[in-house]
Design brief:
The protein has 630 residues and is α/β, with parallel strands linked by helices. It has 24 helices and 23 strands. It has 3 domains: 138 residues, no CATH class; 113 residues, Rossmann fold (3-Layer(aba) Sandwich); 341 residues, Rossmann fold (3-Layer(aba) Sandwich), CATH 3.40.50.720. Keywords: Membrane, Transmembrane, Transmembrane helix.
C-alpha cells in the first residue's frame, strides 16, 4: 500500500502530508493536556473541546509558507528540523494568543510548552520516519550494487548521498587514510582502516571500490592504486575538484581510473604569460588542425583570445570535426577552416599572406611508426619536406614564429618516422642559422616530447579495447619503456616553448620516470577487476602476449641527443644544445632525397636518410611494401 502511495502525483502527496499534520497536531495537544493533568480529565475543559481541533487552521498555513510541504521526502535533510522548529514555535504563540483572547481559564498553561515538544516530535519524527520507509523501499526495489568508498571526507560523504539518490549503488563501507576517522559512522556506514580493504569488501560483498579523493595529487592516487592492485578490484574515481567546480561533471559522475593516475606524474603546470605571448591578439595558424595534437592545440589557443585562428588540414572530416567543435565552444573567436597539403607551397603561401598569419604551429605529420616504416617515401615527403615547405612559406610571408611539434623518436632514431622528424628539425635549424644571410625574421622553434596519452596510435586506448573484449593484451617486449604525457599538457608545452624560443631551439620536457609498458598493461587488467593469465595464474582472465618489437621500434626512448641542456624560465622545460648541418650541406642532401622520392625509389631514399641523419640506425625489418610487391 505504501508503495502505491509513492506513485501518487506531487500535489496528492502534499495533500496527504497536510492531512497527516491535521491529525497529528490535535493529537499532540491532547497528549500534552492529558499528561499535564496526570491522566485525569478536567470536566471544566469539556465546553472548550474545539480548542483541540483548531491548531491545524493556522499551523498548516504556516508550514506552507515555510515550504515544509515542498520538501521531497526521499531527499529530506536535517534542515527540516529547523523548518519544523520555526513552524511549531509560531503555532504555539498563536495558540497562546487564542487561549488568552478566548479566556479559556481552565486550560493548563504549562500544557502549551508540553504541546510544543510533542508537536516537534510528531511533525519532525513523522518526516524522518517517512524518509526511512521510502529509502527502505528504494533499497528493496532497486537492483543496486554494494560498493565501498575510499575517502571519508566531504567528497566521500557527498558521493554517498548522491549514490543513495541515484539508486544504482549501495554504499556499504568507507575507507580513509586518517586514523582519527576509523570507527566513525556516517549514515550508519563505518569508516575502516585501508589495510582491511580485502577483509571488509569480502564481508560486505562489495564488488567495486570508488575513489573519492578529488584533491589528492596524481602521485598519491598512484600510491593508493599500487596498494590496491593485488586485490583485483574494479576501481572508479570521482572527478577532480576543478571539474566539479567548473560544472563540467557532477559529484555522482564516476569515471574509470585515468591512466594518468596509474602513471602517477603530476601534470606540468603551465605559465599563463607564456601561453598568451604568441597568441593573444595574433593570427595563429595550426597545420594538421584535425589531428590529436593539432585539435588540442586549437582548443588551447582559442582560450587565449587570438585575433583569428586558421585551421589547416588535409583530411576533410577531421577539419569539419574541429571546426564544428570550436564553433560550439569558442563562437567569439574568428576562425577559418582550410583544406590543403603541407607540401603545397602556393596554397600555404597564399593562406599565410591572405590572413596575415603571425604564429604557426606545425602539427601535420605521419606519426605511426610501423605505418611510416613500410611507407618511407610518403613519410619522408610529408614529415620532412612538408615541414621544410611550411617553413619556407612562413619565412617568405614574414611569419614571426614557427613551432614544430617533434618527438623523442627523433633522438638516435631507429625508424623512418623518427628519422623524418629529425630531418625536419635539421631543416629548421639550418634556416635559423641562415637568417642573417636570408634576411628572415622568422623564429624557428622545435618541441620534442614523448608518447601522448589518448592520441591516435597510443597504446592506452588499444589496451582498454583489448581488455574490454577479453584479451589478449599485446605488448611488443617485456622490457619496453616509454615516457608519457597528456594531450593538454603536450599542447601547452608546444605553446609555451614557442613563446620562449629565440630561434633554432629544441625544447624538451622533464617527463619524470619512464614507464614499463608491461607493468602498465598488468595494472590496467588488475584495476579492471580481472586477473592476468600467466604461469602463476593459469585460470586468469586476460593474457598478456608479447608480439615482438615492431619494425624500427626501440626498447627505450630518449629526449636528448647529447647531454648538453640549459634551463629555461619554466622549471620543467629544458633547452637542448644539439648539432646542426650547414645550409649548403643540407640542401645537397635534400636535393638528392627529393629526386629519390620523386622517382619513388624507396631504397635510395632510405640510404640517403641514413647519410643526412647521422644517428639513424635503421632496422633490418624496414621495407617499402610497394617495392616488395614489385
Amino acid at each position: 500500500m505504501f508503495a502505491k502511495l509513492l506513485n501518487f502525483s506531487r500535489h496528492n502527496k502534499m495533500a496527504l502530508l497536510m492531512l497527516l499534520d491535521a491529525v497529528l497536531l490535535p493529537f499532540a495537544l491532547w497528549c500534552a493536556v492529558y499528561l499535564r493533568l496526570g491522566g485525569v480529565w478536567d470536566p471544566k475543559l469539556t465546553p472548550y473541546l474545539w480548542i483541540f481541533a483548531v491548531p491545524p487552521l493556522w499551523v498548516i498555513p504556516i508550514f506552507i509558507k515555510l515550504g515544509l510541504y515542498r520538501a521531497v521526502i526521499r531527499f529530506l535533510d536535517d534542515k527540516v528540523v529547523l523548518t519544523v522548529f520555526y513552524g511549531v514555535t509560531l503555532a504555539v504563540l498563536v495558540l497562546t494568543a487564542v487561549i488568552v483572547m478566548a479566556r479559556i481559564s481552565p486550560f493548563p498553561r504549562s500544557a502549551i510548552i508540553i504541546f510544543w515538544m510533542f508537536a516537534m516530535a510528531y511533525i519532525g519524527g513523522s518526516r524522518f520516519l517517512l524518509r526511512g520507509l521510502v529509502r527502505t523501499l528504494d533499497a528493496v526495489d532497486s537492483p543496486n550494487k554494494p560498493v565501498a568508498i575510499y575517502g571519508a571526507g566531504r567528497a566521500g560523504l557527498q558521493l554517498m548521498m548522491a549514490l543513495q539518490a541515484a539508486r544504482e549503488y549501495r554504499v556499504v563501507a568507507f575507507f580513509d587514510d586518517n586514523p582519527a576517522l576509523w570507527g566513525r559512522t556516517y549514515g550508519g556506514i563505518a569508516v575502516n582502516d585501508p589495510s582491511r580493504v580485502a577483509e571488509v569488501m569480502a564481508a560486505k560483498k562489495a564488488g567495486e571500490l570508488l575513489l573519492a579523493m578529488p584533491s589528492a595529487s596524481r602521485s598519491r592516487h598512484r600510491e593508493i592504486l599500487e596498494a590496491l592492485e593485488p586485490l583485483r578490484l574494479p576501481i572508479r574515481r570521482l572527478p577532480g575538484l576543478a571539474d566539479l567546480v567548473s560544472g563540467e561533471v557532477r559529484v555522482d559522475e564516476l569515471k574509470e581510473v585515468d591512466i594518468e593516475d596509474l602513471l602517477g606524474r603530476d601534470p606540468v603546470p603551465p605559465m599563463k604569460d607564456l601561453l598568451a605571448r604568441n597568441i593573444e591578439g595574433r593570427v595563429v595558424m595550426v597545420t594538421g588542425a584535425g589531428g590529436s595534437i593539432g585539435s588540442e592545440l586549437c582548443r588551447q589557443i582559442v582560450k587565449h583570445r587570438p585575433a583569428r585562428i586558421v585551421l589547416f588540414e588535409l583530411t576533410e572530416y577531421a577539419l569539419y570535426a574541429i571546426d564544428h567543435e570550436l564553433a560550439q565552444t569558442a563562437p567569439g573567436v574568428p576562425r577559418v577552416a582550410l583544406l590543403g597539403s603541407v607540401l603545397d607551397y602556393p596554397r600555404l603561401a597564399s593562406v599565410m599572406q591572405a590572413f596575415g598569419v603571425e604564429t604557426v604551429y606545425h602539427a601535420a605529420a605521419y606519426k605511426h611508426v610501423p605505418m611510416v616504416e613500410h611507407n618511407p617515401v610518403a613519410g619522408i615527403l610529408n614529415n620532412a619536406f612538408g615541414t621544410d615547405t611550411c617553413a619556407r612559406a612562413a619565412e617568405d610571408c614574414g611569419v614571426d614564429t614557427f613551432v614544430l611539434i617533434s618527438t623523442d623518436k627523433a633522438v638516435r632514431p631507429t625508424n623512418v618516422m623518427g628519422a623524418t622528424k629529425r630531418l625536419a628539425e635539421l631543416t629548421l635549424q639550418a634556416r635559423h642559422a641562415d637568417r642573417a644571410a636570408s634576411g628572415s625574421r622568422t623564429r624557428f622553434v622545435m618541441v620534442r616530447f614523448g608518447n601522448v596519452l589518448g592520441s591516435s596510435g597510443s597504446v592506452v586506448p588499444l589496451f582498454k579495447k583489448q581488455i574490454k573484449h577479453g584479451g589478449p593484451v599485446t605488448v611488443t617486449h617485456p622490457d619496453i619503456t616509454r615516457y608519457f604525457m597528456t594531450i593538454p599538457e603536450a599542447a601547452q608545452l608546444v605553446i609555451q616553448a614557442g613563446a620562449m624560443g629565440e630561434g633554432g631551439d629544441v625544447f624538451v620536457l622533464d617527463m619524470g620516470e619512464p614507464v614499463k609498458i608491461a607493468d602498465l598493461a598488468r595494472r590496467m587488467v588488475h584495476l579492471s577487476g580481472l586477473e592476468v593469465k600467466d604461469e602463476q595464474h593459469p585460470h586468469g582472465d586476460i593474457e598478456i602476449r608479447y608480439a615482438g618489437l615492431r619494425p624500427g621500434e626501440k626498447l627505450y626512448e630518449e629526449l636528448l641527443i647529447g647531454a648538453d641542456v640549459l634551463p629555461t624560465e619554466h622549471a620543467r622545460i629544458m633547452r637542448a644544445q644539439e648539432y646542426c648541418l650547414s645550409r649548403s650541406e643540407l640542401d645537397h642532401h635534400l636535393s638528392a632525397l627529393a629526386e629519390a622520392c620523386q622517382a619513388l625509389d624507396a631504397a635510395r631514399a632510405f640510404a640517403l636518410m641514413q647519410q643526412v641523419v647521422h644517428e639513424f640506425q635503421a632496422a633490418d625489418a624496414t621495407v617499402d611494401w610497394v617495392s616488395r610487391a614489385q
